Amino acid sequence: MAAGRERILETAYELFSRHGTRAVGVDRIVAEAGTAKMTLYRNFASKEELIVAFLDAREQRWTRGWLRAEVEARATDPAERLLAIFDVFGEWFALPDFEGCSFINVMLEIADREDIARAASVRHLSIIREFLAGLAAEAGIADPDAFARQWHILMKGSIVAAAEGDVQAAARARELGELLLAARR
Fold this sequence. Notes:
- This protein is mainly alpha-helical.
- The radius of gyration is 18 Å and the shape is elongated.
- The chain contains nine helices and no strands.
């Protein structure tokens, strides 16, 4: 059963990352995973539960396994780590298969604020802000939460700008980040 669950989740991860959660139906996931629909529903009670599992996997792979790891590898100073986010983003935005932020995408795809998948996307975005607030506190910023919210706006804005085709979105956000850091320290 675990193998079927993992195959479904891995297939959903790839499809949801590339095409969004609303554009991909369970029939496509089942077909591409090579499993039965019953296997999907035995492991995930609904498509929303599958989306939540996808977002959990995305946090592990993207937020922790990639973004945080890259930022921590590039700088030791907390303020430099904040700025390194945009260096990492610049490389991400340049990838031919840049897919944007799944947390933002899911949140915008689902209008119902009570939906468990939308709530999960909001929760995962707050985890990123917690990371940012921690860096802000370490950097000596007086109100780390407010600063993290501002920084997160820069991050999300740069992702949207990159999706529009702005190849300099990360560099532009980094410049704004430098100004914000200077003003808040």
